[in-house]
Amino acid sequence: MLLLPLLIFLLPGPSCTVAQSRQKRAWIIDSYEIEEGHPGPFPYVLGKVTIDRKYQVLFDLKGQGVDKDPKGVLRIEESTGRILAYGPVDFEEYQVLKLSFAAKKPEDHSIDTQLGVEIAIRDINDNPPLFEEPLYEVTVDEALSQGSHLLTVLAFDRDKPNTRNSTFHYAIKSVSPESSNIEFILEETGALSFKGCFDHEVASKHTLVIEAIDHGEVVQLSSSTTAIIYVEDGNDHLPVITGQSGSGKVKENEFGVSPLRLHVMDKDMTQSKAWRAKYTIQGDKGGYFKIETNAETNDGILTVVKPLDFENGAMRELKISVENEAPYFSCKVKRRPSAGLWDVDFTEEQIGGKNIQHNTTTVVIEVEDVNDPPNFVVTVKEATLKEDAPIGTWLETVTAVDRDATASRDFIYKVGHDPAGWMNINPQTGNITTRKMVDRESVHVVNGVYTLMLHAVDKGEPPMTGTATLQIHLIDVNDNVPKLDVNHVDVCMSDGQTPTNISANDLDGAPYGGPFNFELLGNVKRRWKLDPSYGFTAGLVRDSSVPGGLYTLRVKVSDMQGTYGIYWLNATVCSCSVVRHCRNRNSGTISSYGAAGIALVAVALFLLALLAAFHISCKTVFIPAYVDSEVNGILVTSNTEAPGSEIELGELPLHAQSENLRFTQDNRKGRRDSFKSNDSLRYGTRTISRSSKHWIKTEERNNALRQTGNLSRVYLASPSKQSLEMSTSTPFYPTRDNGVQIMDGWKEEFKARINYQTIYEALLLYLQRRLSSFQEPMAELLDYEPHLYAEEGEPNSPADLDYLDIPDEHGSLHEVLENLGPQFSELAACVLQITTTGTRTTFTQHRV
């Protein structure tokens, strides 16, 4: 046993100075060493500590093995100083135990002397070398050349370094399966390589058991690991074509079909790159064929990708070779020397090995003749034609050929698509002529080009058709006059002499189109003018003296060649106070101003209604009545037409006697009979003379005061009602007698003051009437939409009309026309100049 000396050093105690003055103290301690992994039995005496004292001392031991890890391994007897070992110590964990010995006085346990001690642990070979991994795996290609590194194993030993116990070596314990073509080499560093050749068909994997063995003197310990080398199949077997299947025939002009299928055999692993076949076609001039590999069977499928022409050959001979996706290699062991690598014959295609002969076969594809369509020599042709060319004009000649050798080569020409039906084609010669006059401005002409599709149809079964396109460029002529874009414009008085744009267009192209010359015809001097008058748009300027109304102007528009057209242009002149368009002032326009605008309109209407109420109190209420021809009124001929009158609300009596006006259907006739020449009828404070022979007519339905139209007719009912109502009942008009019209006979006879309740109700109804006109589209009189009529030539001169003379003593023309019946309202609107009454404007149409 190798004994390591104990390192002993004195530690002075509390009475060190006194002790030194008296005597030298001596410790007697042996050298101690604990063998790693002592088998026991325990406890056993490790040694004894002796101190030279003439008096008794007590021993104490502290440190590693006692009260520090590893605890409970050592113990000292207090009285004798013997050291006992109670268990083994692992060298790999504790190479030395550090302790402290102390001698104490038994009286007070004070320390007499103490010292430090190190107990060495002696290593034994108790740890085998261990590998880092229990299993090592690697995949290599079958074509890997000998001497190549495969993998590296690594082990370690926990015994004391640089001793035989921790020194080890590697060794291959076994190889499975055993092969004469390969041998594995394991270096001292754990690197694994091989010499010879892998053969996947012999062994797809190699399993090696590798050991690590230490060099212990007493016993040698070892451990092992497993290394597996997977061999991926390489292309060491060439594919061989074993046969073919399929008809080997294909019809001309047919493609996408597979007339042939090649079968191969390969000994390499199925579905590997070394097994999958790759085909190559030789002799396919024009690229009519392709060959693809079936992923399941490895067959080569030959497909036609471009139509074949029988006339170019009835047979197609192709050479097809086959190889694998992985490059081919070969490895054969020739000699196995004892030292160094073996002598092998290794060939690899991808690194310039000797020429590899791939398997090749020859196939013949037969092309079957079918009926070919005639082919046009030129499939897209262009021609030029003038727009005014006469019918029958020759345009172009097209030519087609049919390469068939049979009777089906005969064909005729036809028009395939002629959208306007303008063209003819000679079935035999292909001459194209016009059958109708062409029009460059037709919807079938795009950018001046008319497209005609032509067919050549043979007489085969079934008939085959060839197609060509003729693009006809049409030369424009001046066959269209310029036209106005719109025939109605709105002119706002508030714009002053700002021009209103009028534009024109011409279907003809340059130089037969715009810019245009615009000209106003008729007597428009100092009333209307055009500024500018040349261009695609002209400016219509109104003179400030022209009043509001609808005007019809004659406009002459000429193109650059002088070709012109004359058109009626309706111009509506208005104030544009509500909207910018004179013709669109309807409820939609007003509602667009929102709630605030409607409120302002309502306030304005209410103020106008108050003004009208004041006007009502000063007017006369008419009671229509049957009268005879003896009235002393103004008579005019019945065919005189006048406009409808404005609002006429006369005064109504405050207290009329109901019995004077209450007529019914039953007693109307009696009333007429009893109304004699000497009697009189009282109405309020007014009296109607019986001698006037006027018969009063009243409505029996409601006996109420009614209004129709624009409140221009008012009827009196029973005074007991004292109210006004809106109604669409039949209005009363003055009656006619022997072709004369009663005008003002009763105008002053039935006036009275109306009370405030009646005025209030009248104003309310009037306001409702005005508001209703805004809610109903196109309800206002000014919403006039002109109607277009056909051109009828120049209008008659106003000088041809008869002059209508109305004497001044019968009142003004305006007053007479206002009192005519409603059947003359339209005529009056055509005669009167613009007249403003209240809030309504009446327009007069003028033709100049």
UniProtKB/TrEMBL annotation:
Residues spanning the membrane: 593-614
A molecular function (GO) held by this record is: beta-catenin binding
Gene Ontology cellular component list: adherens junction; catenin complex; cytoplasm
This protein's superkingdom? Answer: Eukaryota
Alphabetical list of SUPFAM superfamilies matching this protein: Cadherin-like (SSF49313)
Residue ranges annotated for the Cadherin domain, each copy included? 56-131, 132-241, 257-376, 377-484
> Would you kindly state one Gene Ontology biological process term found in this protein's UniProt entry?
homophilic cell adhesion via plasma membrane adhesion molecules
Q: Identify the main location.
A: membrane
**Which PANTHER family does this UniProt record tie to the protein?**
CADHERIN 27-RELATED, CADHERIN-23
Q: What is this protein called?
A: Cadherin 27
Q: Does the keyword Cell cycle apply?
A: no
The residue range of the signal peptide is: 1-19
- Please name the taxonomic classification of the source: Eukaryota, Metazoa, Chordata, Craniata, Vertebrata
Source organism of the structure: Xiphophorus maculatus (Southern platyfish)
